[in-house]
Design a protein that fits this description.
single chain, alpha/beta, five-stranded mixed sheet, three-stranded mixed sheet, 51% helix, extended, disordered C terminus
Length: 490
Amino acid sequence: MKAVIYARVSSKEQEREGFSIPAQHKLLIEYANKHDFQVTQEFTEVETAKSSGRTEFGRMVEYLNAQSDVRCILVEKTDRLYRNFRDYVLLEALDLELHLVKENEVISKNSQSHAKFVHGIKVLLAKSFIDNLSEEVKKGMREKAEQGEYPGKAPFGYCNDPIGKSIVPDEKYAPLIKRLYQLYSSGNYSLASLRDKVYEEGWRTAKGRKLAKSMVEAALKRRFYLGEFVWKGTTYPGQHEPLISKSLFDSVQAVLTSAPRQQSGRREFLFRGLLKCEHCGCALVGELKKGKYIYYHCTQARGPCNHPWVREEVLDQRMMDVLKAVEIDDGTVGDIVQALKDSHQDETTFRDSELLRLRKRDRELQSRLDRAYEDRLDGVIDEEYWRRVSASWRDEQNGIAHQIQKLGQSDRNYIDQAVEILELSKMAHSLYLERKTAEKRQLLQSLLSNCSSDGINLCPTYQTPFNLIAEGRQNQFKYPRQDSNLLPSV
């Protein structure tokens, strides 16, 4: 069989510390010779996790696309091949046979479901996917917010300018926001009467209805119209043009604070904001009937819909089946966690050696600082030289301290997060049975990104990585645990 070889180290430090390309190359060549593979191409990658993209990985994908008779990749282990979940999806679409030599495993479309299940979990929980991809996106949004650029869609009253890539006032709706604040600051309106007033003046929903009181209140509290915005709990000054003054905003907040609040006594709807109509894609909303029964129905925001009204108790029973789909046993949890630990043993070894190197360098710098301080007292060096070199060495020490902290937490955070995800998957159904409405909602939000209903059945879309667990769990127990497509020992 024809195959390609792919070798990668994730940092320059790993290359220097012995997790080298030559070692991987030797292992893979020996494996190819032993199993009669014809190696048609070799791809070698030495990049840091911070770099955007992998040149050799891209070249390998192009090569495999062009060479239909080459369907095998020989690689040391899972985390040498993938750096994020997108890589996994990309290679899966090519219908390849992956030989993970150190893990003594072959993954292909014909592999047993348990082997593919564990392999997918290892890919999905790779450090680079959790620690790098997610963190880089969050960091980019945070940096954008710190520069005064709102990282989201422009709120009502503004629009996104595609040319200048900025947020600008909407000529049609910005005056409505100003009018809303001016009316309410007078103290002559309640939220309900204000809603009626702006309805008369032309501010309506897409279907021509009155705004909900909650929408009016949210608009009156939004600091975006003041020229600020809140992102991830932090308030930032924005670069966009404010629609109202600070004094007007404060006046409105004072009226809101002093307005009497009527206790509604309404029951909390378990599935509020969590369900969509399978027929038309609109939201399903709850409605209390006869003071004690909650029914869900389609909002029909896109026109008439034949979705039936459904009791909350019926949906509650259906949701238990949805949670059972991600329920896994203790043995499977143990298998996956052990596979993750084994897969990252080299990274643990590298981390330990890197910690030793950093601590040694820190001691060297401290020794230099101590000697230089004595030389300054003895007059061997002058004050200016002391300030310059001591500042430089202390900066380096601070950087070392940061790297040590990061290295000390990386593997622990990774394994801990994996265990938390798997434990939640194992206990999701039982937790749902025990919890109250608010806690049930929180649990469902952690597991599901969307869930639609046709009035009888629920069709869930699970959050990552629970989607993979649900898919793998459908057939993983059809096969004996030991039947995991093992290769002969190398």
